[in-house]
Amino acid sequence: MLKPYYKDTKSVGTTPARSYYIPFSRADKKSYDREDSSRFTSLCGAWKITPYESVLDVPDDFYNNDGADDIAVPSCVQYYGYDYFQYTNDRFPFPYDPPRVPERNPAYHYSRYFDCKVGGEKTYIVFEGVDSCFYIFVNGKAVGYSQISHRISEFDITDYVKDGKNKLDVLVLKWNMGSYLEDQDKWRFTGIFRDVYLLRRPQNHITDYKIETRIHGADGIVAFINKSDVQVAVTFGGETQSVPARAQSEFTVKNARLWSAETPFLYDMVIQSDDEVIYNRVGIRVTEVKDGLYLFNGKPIKFYGVNRHDFHPEKGYAVSREDMLTDIELMKSLNVNAVRTSHYPSSPLFYEMCDEYGLYVMSEADLESHGFVKSDGGYDWAMQAIPQDKNFEQSIVERSVCNVEEHKNFACVVMWSLGNESGWGANEKRALEAVVARDDRPVHYESIYPYVVGDEEYYNGSGLKTVSRMYSTPDWIVNEYLNDAKETRPFMLCEYAHAMGNGPGGLKEYWELFESTDRLMGGFIWEWADHGVKYGAGDGFKYGGDFGENLHDGNFCIDGIVSPDRQFKAGSLQMKYYYQPLKFERADNKLTVTNKNFFGAQTGELVITQNGKAQKRGVCIPPRESIVMDLTDGDATAQYYVGGAEVARAQFVSDKPRAKFVCEKIKTELHGHALIVTSGDNEYRLDVQSGEVESVRAGGAEYGRISLNILRAPIDNDMYIRQKWDARYLKFARPCARGYRVEKDSVIFDIIVAADSLVPVIDATLTYSFCKSGVRVAIDYKVNDVTKFEFLPRIGWTLKLDRSYDKLKYNAYGDGETYSDMYEYAIKGEYECSVKDEYKHYVKPQESGSHYLPDYAEVSDGKRAVRVEGMTSFSALPYSTAQLENAAHDYELPERDGTYLSADYYMSGLGTNACGPLPFDGYVTPNAGADAICFYFGEKR
Predict the structure, then answer these.
(1) Which of 495, 527, 817, 838 is catalytic?
(2) Residue 356 is among the residues annotated as catalytic for this protein
(3) Once rounded to an integer, what is the mean pLDDT over residues 312-341?
(4) Is 555 helix (H, G, I), strand (E, B) or coil?
(5) Which tops the pLDDT comparison, 626 or 119?
(6) Active site includes 495?
(7) For residues 527 and 504, what is the distance between their CA atoms, to the nearest angstrom?
(8) Is the whole-model pTM more than 0.85?
């Protein structure tokens, strides 16, 4: 009978956690690719599988059977039609009844055969990741059991294997008691999702070792600590030393080349014992908190970071080496220098590549118990039950121990994290003690904050040398952290700038503050990639609720700075801009370019463009130094390239006066509800009921209604303020004219904007003036009762045109979409494009395609055009606001029925309020204002 290990949190039969390495034979060629080792045998590939609705349905002799169906390993069973897809953020996807596990617990019997040659050596099997727990049988005999989904589970199967063909059976369960500790914001996938392999090793072999590095003047000191019971020979820097069992030795590297994310230099180390060789790459570096600052190699660096989950839209957790490398290369191209492995350790291959390519890593233990906060149906921050529960102590400690022991020899790991959103109590304190006893790298744990803030334990007693928060505003950082006389530790935002949908806005305020003081370490954007699933019918990406599941958190998993298929968004490029390694400053006609790096020179090509002419110059700027270049009068754009790829940019643009609007005489005539205004050859029908332009006749063409617009298709970061907008029925508010008058050559309307049964949202005066080819619409408005909704999404005008009006020309910040709090990455200039390409296809449709601070925008059908001037932003889209709002997925958008031209007096910024703050002051639609927009109709210019 299967022993119910899954009802406890202990693993059975696993070897002690050790540093990750792959042994080679002496006869093997030197390589850092584990596939080249003759001692390594991959068991990835085709397996058999049998599903069971519950672990209670699994026969006692299940291992005597072969699975009926095929499945790939690694993979997640949901992609093979088993169980169901489910995404939850901060709710347990099972009843909260700790320490009990649901008896309705799906189980999956995996099986395969493998060949083995015994030959007097030992055989181990390694599982790098299984969700959530598993039993292992070899040749019908029980070997052991492991839990903690993201640990490396290793079993000694020497006594279970035989020469020739062997049978391997693995029973994977969806839930175990440790699932209370794995309530991360993620899809709930199941299966053997990381690599499985055999290791063949000498009887007396290396078991574990630790590499420590420090800096002494210009020299690097490398300590090798032998944690094995065998003597080893270590070769490093051309020197070989014999290191006895349980002893250590040191190597000195003169004028050492230090490892950093900017200069990821690695030294070779060879470790030998018997017929076994381990190739280890070593980065010499020091990571520490000293004198109240976080220092890396003695310098107060910043983390330009992202949070990263394991995720692929067609594979779930089962990301390959190639998938991980793609992420790393994209991060580097976006100037990211740091990754938090949220909220569990990554594959060891990811750490290897971060060593090689240069990324600082905060390695996080596989721990999150966020579901506590909603376990009673409300929201209660008191997550202190499990942190104090003795039943979970061993597992909470083990999760941090595994994290440290497995990844301790990677140079990229600059901090340890105890986990995420799991409260604070005796169990976390024990975990912290275990980490500190094993390694001297700084330890992170944000979740201490809500429980002991202000106490001496928070400032002094916890042993946490850094302060970490999520989504704090810049004002909070200044007022509550920097002005706290008791606080002497460095500060980071382990999560900030929630990158959900269109956004994030507000990076400027964070990074101006982060760069202003060495006490601030930087932060990690939430998060790297959208978690959109591609499965089943249709070509689009799906999210929570798309699979018929009752409990889910909708599209909250679509929260990445890049799309599910790793395409860039405007937010990606905005992040790249604020993470760029160069700082550009202009004073008069001098441009100062400073290398923000601490360790690496910036060697590339700088291109300065003025008055349509480009000046190119090769540069090599040492770390923390500057060069000065001469400019001429006028606007200037600076772009810096390395190897042909743009790394950094800046633009210096002066404000240009608006074109003068020359009024013409008008004739007016009232016909029913329409006031007919004739100006030159143009005729305008003004609706005296609403105060809007009902239609325009110009140059023999008819143009439709110009509608007052206070809405946008809600972005994901509008999710909370939108509730207030909806409560005031902004969607149904319409302009109503109180009256009008004709004064000289202008028509003036007094209007309100209101929904039925409610007091007006807006009181406004509209003044229409006319020129030979257009109309100028001035507004003077005041928003009423703003306490109900704080600010409007926007205020401006929308004109629907025939879909033949597909050609767009404009001068604004482009060519990507830009907003008041997300435009600095863009270059202001003149662009031409197609309207059909202006909408950014987010997984969940929303406001998109805006261009900030335009001089003009012109939409045409090739002959006739509508030109707009004087707005602060505009968009020309193939979809209306309603069409975008009413579609739950991109693939549900209707066929295009026109071109929707919107010209805004004001458009509120994007903010990051799905988790972070609303748009900051100055980036929202003012609650009172006066401005004017000009519409011109006629021949294409």
Answers:
(1) 495
(2) no
(3) 98
(4) helix
(5) 626
(6) yes
(7) 11
(8) yes
